[in-house]
Amino acid sequence: MKVLFVTSEIATLYKRGGLADVSYALPVALSNAGVNVSVVMPFYEGVGTRDVTCVGQLAIDYDRRRELVFIFRTLLPHSHVRAYLLRHPLLNNYDDAHIAERFAFFSKAVAQLSLYSASTLGGPYDIIHCNDWHTALIPLMMGESSKVAYRERETIQSQYAKTILTIHNLLYKGETGFSITLKLGFPKSVFHPFMTPLGRAVRLLTEGFEYADIVTTVSPTYAKEITRGVHGKRVVEIFKRRKDTIVGILNGLDTNLWNPSDDPALPVHYYPSSAIPAKAKIKEMLQQAVRLPKSDVPLFGFVGRLEKRQKGLDLIANAIKKLAAEDYQLVLLGTGQKSLVTLFEKLSAQHHNIAFVHTFDERLARRIYAGSDIMLVPSKFEPCGLTQMIAMRYGTLPLVRKTGGLADTVTDGKTGFVFGPYTSSALSAKMTEAISLYRDAPKKFSSMMTAAMKVDFSWAHQVKEYKALYKKLLQ
Ligand code: GLC
């Protein structure tokens, strides 16, 4: 069984968010579990590796021209996983107005690579594992490409290659004008366009739902939410027609990368048995570093994208109005939407118990994971979420909303705090409960910390489900 894992970002090479962490850790864990897996991603200028070899090239027809794409090979650090990087001027940068076209082009190159790849390129592949909207056109392309190839009586590997599409976030759909179908040179009839005020458009992610052999997402609860239409009705309609459903497989955590007993960013290391004194020291240093007064009130942490639609920052801003400043402290770290930056800058200037650090600083993030008492993850929706898992491994109790992967990983009153309705009063009530527990029942609080640290989120568990799915697909 040969698997090609296709993604727009991979931690260690190029990272923007949680997708990169999974795109590194899952293939490595699969490979450690004996699966023959390669990964492929664009060779952006920002890719942090020099150790690459050019192993071939592809001729891609795009926008009525023949484009040459160079294939480079490297290994994912600390693994045996081959990574293919595709170089072409269209793929130099991740970000700009033509992002949907860029990834449509990338997808065409990958489809071609997997169609004709000989063993020198790790193929022929049995399974093409696509991730998010960026790569969601590949299932459609594999089908169409193989039809074309069949007419021309060329080698057709894609007749055997199966496709999986994993949704990491349904919010981003890769919407673009219908002219993309012309540029790609595929028959219009294979797309599912819809009308917008600007004319006909397509969503790359939705095309993936139509054509992938299996669609998965990154937690069982998010899968259920999607199936019930919580995040949009269109998906539900498609799956009714397909007569199957979305499979939810919880993400794992890279327990080597996130380990409080040897994390180089931490001034003190600890195990569950030594967590309390070690964390107290780190908390003190953290308070100093972010200029919060030294105090023994519970310290809440937030690390993440400042994103209005998903991360529940509006709830935090309103919930704290209902709490007494002397009862708690709050440290937030992150970058993102300007209005939120302004809001939290203002709040931290007004309140001596709130610190906001407007940057992305991995070392400080790790200190917040370790030095806080409670980590806030009040997301409106959360396909899986990594923060709560890291927090638990570092002995910090997550306070989360009951949605998606948060609902699947945190148990209220045992390994963290869970609230239901997406309202600031539900959040402030839960924060008040956590504050009282910390103050009035320290024994219970610390036994919850130990319980949280002992939950096993390692990928070794999770890959079994992917392996089983791959096998099922090839039957
Ligand atoms: C996206 C989701 C997040 C998930 C991650 C990896 O970033 O928002 O919930 O953990 O992808 O799957």
Say which CATH homologous superfamily of the largest domain is assigned.
Answer: Glycogen Phosphorylase B
**Neighbour order of strands in the largest sheet:** 3-4-5-2-1-6-7-11-12
CATH class of the largest domain: Alpha Beta
State the major sheet: 9 strands, mixed
The coarse silhouette is globular
Bound ligands: alpha-D-glucopyranose
Average of the residue pLDDT scores: 93
Please tell me how large the radius of gyration is: 23 Å
Distance between the amino and carboxyl termini: 11 Å
What does the model show?
- The protein folds into 2 domains: 2-252 and 459-474, Rossmann fold; 272-453, Glycogen Phosphorylase B (Rossmann fold).
- The protein is an alpha/beta fold.
- It has 16 helices and 18 strands.
- 39% of the residues lie in helices and 20% in strands.
- The strands form 3 sheets. The protein has a 9-stranded mixed sheet with strand order 3-4-5-2-1-6-7-11-12, sandwiched between helices.
- α1 (18-32) packs across α16, α2 packs across α3 and α3 crosses α5 (204-211).
- β17 (397-401), α13 and β18 form a beta-alpha-beta unit.
